[in-house]
Amino acid sequence: MVGANDVVFSDHAGAFAKLAAGLLSSEIEPRDAHRLAVELVASALDADVTLVYGLGGDERMLAVSAHRGAPEALLARIGSLPLESASLAARVARARKAADVDIAAKDVLVDLRVAAELGCGQRALAAPLVSEERLLGVLVCFTPRAESGRDRALPMLSALTGLIAASLSAATQATLGHDRRYRKLFEHALDGIIVTDDEGRLVDVNPRTCELLRASRAELLRRTWVDLKPPELASQVRANWSQFLLVGRWNAEGPFRRADGTTFVGEVTAQAHFIPGRHMGILRDVTARKQSEEALRRSEERLARAQRIARIGSWEWDIDTNEVAWSDECDRLFGLPPGAGKMTYEQFFSFVHPDDHTEVDEAVRRALGGSLSFSIHHRTLAHDGREQIVHADGDVIRDEAGHPIRLCATVRDVTEQRRAERALQKSELLFRQVLETLPVGVWVSDERGQLVLVNPAGRRIWGGARLVGPEPFGEEHKAWWVATGEEVKPDEWALHRAIRSGEATLNDLLEIEAGGGRHRLVLNSAAPVRDPQGRVLGAFVINDDVTEQRRLEAERERLVDALSTERRWLRAVIDRSPIGIVLCELEKGERFVMNRRAEELLGVTGPIEDVLGLMRQRVHLPDGSKVPHEDLSIERGLRGQMVTGRELLLRVPGKPDVSILTSASPIRSEGGQTLGAVVTYEDITSLKELERLQQEWTSMVAHDLRHPVTTIKTLAGMVTRSSADPTARYRATRIVDSAERLGRMIGDLLDLSRIEARRLSLVRAPTDVSALLAHVIEANEARERVTLSIRGELPAVSIDAQRIEQVVENLLSNAFKYGAPGTPIEISAQARGGEVVVAVRNQGPGITAEDMRALFERFQRGRAHGGAIKGLGLGLYIVRGLVEAHGGRVVAESVPGETTTFSFSLPVPTWPEGAEVG
């Protein structure tokens, strides 16, 4: 009975005998002998890696000519070894003596260290290949450690190398015998044959190679393999050459350079080490083939692209086997991987959308039952969940008896088509809606000029519409050229020109006769509609009714002309005005415009880049000091403030100072946006001189009057205190009252003269307004009728406290005089928008609208309950002057028969950080 081990041994021995017989064959070639040697040794010694090194022609290098089990990394590092190197293969070759080495030992040779690093084995055996005292190469094998067979391995290897060397020698001799026959074949080969050495130098070429490369044999034998390729591929060719020597074979296509500089596409099949140190390549010109292949590839790509674009797939159902086969495009349509194979009809049918199962199944059954074909749209659910719409066309193939045997069908993805159809329907609907709502008339005609469509605006413009052809067009639609007044002829219509010659017309201005005899002005435009080939399919016309627009344009031109005339008048008035005017526009940055008088006052003699800077240099306060930063009248106007009657001083170098009165105002749009500001400068030098004389006269008169008034008051007071006669005391008291009233009048006259002369001096200091108001109320004799209301916290203001007390006293006195007797009077104060606002409210008959207009003028007096109020009528005028001198404003509000309120504002200054206010 034969055991399993015997069977394995028998198989192993049979393989070994077969390899040995092949190696000893008289027909073997050196290359095959190397290969069989590797297989024989590997089989005999059970080696992991076996290498055969051949000796190069110059007998200086050992190169691997055949191997088994060698990784590429090993071949890359020890595939070629100098005969003089410190390697096991070189040492055995030099000593011509076999060796058995433990790779794990220290200080091993270079090839053994590389083998150990790559895990190729633990034991190395090497033996020289020698025949008739001639070194042919070295055989090296790496095996796992096997102590039991260690004594037999090396002798076996030595015996095998003797056999291999004899075979190699016989093969070499036999090869020499065949060289003549092969040389003839070499010379007459239809492909180029190139033989190179290890460095890639050409050592032999056949005549076909000379033809391909257009060079003589002598010229080519002076070149290397790298020289045959275009220069830009030199580095790549060198890298490929090294790889070729390691791998042993190479197949590639690429450009080759001829001697005349032209190139062709060559196909190379190369064999390394076909004899030690020699490498052969077969070169053929495949330019024509590559061109054909490229043309075929492009054709196939176009076909595949067309199929993908068309999204057409086909499938076939073998009814007997119930199997369905389909094309590659069906894989994509149904979300299947390429080459998914066959499936049953039921499985294939599962891709039909469940909602369409009944319709599709019925169509297939009708076809199988007798119909020749079917054509149907249905939805599918792809394997990846996508929902699509496909169109399926199918035919039934029957046998001779008429029984159905196959059903063949095509499916085409029409998802985008159906979506496009729905989109087109939607687009047409939108087009209709847009056409219906367009304010311009739109007419559409076919290629013959027959009107086929008109929108409501077109009917409205023409007062109705008839869809006529080109012949009655001129009769139905009458029009005249606006430019000449001549009637538009039938062939002059833009629609006719678009249809006849494909001409596009834009905005012909016509006067048309609309329904009811009415005439309108329209802009008539037309353009042809063409197909992709440029043929005219029709035309469209657009009528824009510009009747009202032209009327408005004429009116606008008239207004523009009137405005231009008005602006010229205004410019002339401004330029000749005796008052200096400076305008600042903000539309495109700050731009200043001055009239002649402003240029004279500011001393401008030429163009000024920084007008604002010039004004800051030359405009001063009345006392000669600089105007505070951002406090020029024009700057206040740009901030939206009103400036009225502000006295300033102009100082122009080389000229005497000029006193001016300035007023400024912002210029706003209708929406309230500040567009700029205007400031006026009025030379008041002569007025100042008159005011100075008036003030001197007033002061002199007031001073001269005060002395006798004081004397009268003193003497009358003495009479009231010393006289025993009641009548005399009463009359003396009347004299004192009249003298005091006369004194107040004299004081008002002095204040009036200072205010009008703008010589009112203020002693400003940070002041608590709430405390000031409380003090005024406490000093008043009728304080029990007065209430004080402070709303929120009041910031300190910089004021002349004595003058503001005078303002409050005047307003309080006014409330007592004109309010209803015994009614309360309310004084309130609050902070609002950077100001402190003080209001005095009383109840009474109020102020009429007529009196309100002159309320703050000089010498104006109202009427109280008891009749006319005594006095000069300067109280409110002085109040306004004192408040405006502080930079504030005073206003009055009155509801006749109910309340009257006088309020004034005081600006809150910006105190320096850290300053104490009190």
Automatic annotation (TrEMBL):
Domain spans labelled PAC: 374-426, 500-558, 644-696
Domain (PAS): residue spans on this chain: 178-232, 299-371, 427-463
Catalytic activity: ATP + protein L-histidine = ADP + protein N-phospho-L-histidine
UniProt signal peptide: none
Ranges of residues in domain Histidine kinase: 700-910
UniProt xrefs under PROSITE patterns: HIS_KIN, PAC, PAS
Record's keyword terms, sorted: Kinase, Phosphoprotein, Transferase
UniProt-listed Pfam families: GAF_3 (PF13492), HATPase_c (PF02518), HisKA (PF00512), PAS_3 (PF08447), PAS_4 (PF08448), PAS_8 (PF13188), PAS_9 (PF13426)
EC number(s) given by UniProt: 2.7.13.3
Keyword Ribonucleoprotein: no
Keyword Kinase: yes
Entry protein name: histidine kinase
Organism for this UniProt entry: Polyangium sorediatum
